[in-house]
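[audit] Reproducing an earlier prediction to check determinism. Same input, same settings, fresh worker. If the tokens differ from the archived copy the diff job will pick it up downstream; this log only records the rerun itself.
[audit] input (469 residues):
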Amino acid sequence: MPNHLWFRLTAAFALVIFVGVLVTVLLTRSGTATQFEHFMLDGHMVRPAIMQQTLADYYYHHQGWSQIQEVLPALVAATADGMMSGVAGAMMGMRDNHLVVIDTEERVIAKLPGAAASALLEPPLQRWPLVVNDQVVGTMVVQGALMGAGDIPNLLIGSVTRTVLLAALVAGLVALALAGLIVRQITLPLDDLSKAARLISAGDLTARVRMESEDEIGALAQSFNQMADGLQRQEVLRRNLMADVAHELRTPLTGIQGAVEAMQDGVFPTDAENLAALHEEIMLLNRLVDDLRILATAEAGQLALQCRRFDMADLCCRQVNLFQYTAQTRNVMLTAVAEPSVPAVYADEQRIGQVLHNLLDNALRHCHAGGSVTVSVDTGSLVGKPSVTVTVVDDGEGISADDLAHVFDRFYRADRSRSRAGGGTGLGLAIARQLVLAHGGDVWVQSPPPGELRGATFRFSLPVAAGQT
């Protein structure tokens, strides 16, 4: 494909150069020939068409031919393209001609050189009618041939044409060679892009394109490399997700399998206590599968939202009340603070309640005994528009700088040794992030650096409902 493109571009340049050469030669020949369309009067180079128009204008402005004989030399001098000596004119095939102006009755009214006469000149004669307002008012008669009628002008025109043609052909060949080099410089990076694209389509996500310029081709190569980097990251995430899902599902399934086999072998009695343990593992497995479904649906943008206007402060207070028992059992102070007159939001109240549930569950699990968790609601700005911001702050062990960028990743746990019972499924924060993004909001996390106050701060913002300020 790039070779075909190189051929087409080079052919296009060749066609443009050929047309340019042809137009240059034709215009040069025409222009040179036009320069010879003169006759010589008293050493002046005069174009017949211009002299014809000058005489017609004189008649129009003076309403007749009065004093034309006296002013004729001045009119010739004013309209001439320049002077030429008799020797030069003879070399160009020209000699001084005679100009006669006659009226509609064939009477001589002006003559140059010489005074007015009553008879016409001897042949050869050339006649040009003088027209004013579509009426013939006289005739301009010139004795002799035009400058271009001789052999020498024709030879000169041919010589100029050949010289221009040769110069244009040389310039065209040089331009075509330069065009081929330029086109090659354009198509080589495209060839590299094509090869890299074929490698990526074959599964080699490490293929990249060299960026050797900062022009549009270089920008295209940079965009291609960024796309390849994104595909490679997505492939790594996909593989990690598959491995994480397999690991997370295998653990409860292994526990259930072992317990059932122990009961079958009579090692464990089939009593209410052991069945309750099996039920707990099954519920955990069911919750994991449900979390995976919600996360996959949200990431695909197919999550069904039942949005309505509701009070975010009221929702936060209800969620805090639901977690008061858990907070008391862990000896953690859980409080809610709301800014007065917080505007309503337009969102799926159940989904946003799930976001708060996940954030509070995460904060309580990572907060030490005697600590505190605070939920606050206030107004803010999201992409320059009014919003409501919810903040969940705990004074637990905090999050390291290395872990901050990954807390919203699937199955990510800052403490790799943390059990599922203590660390959840590893999907709560990922689900919270996707649910907020599905509402057009934003979510982020902050944690003080080591040496300062510990703890973590999670915030998410949602746009204010229409009509609210």
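[audit] rerun output stored. Observation attached for the diff report: The chain has 13 helices and 14 strands.
[audit] end
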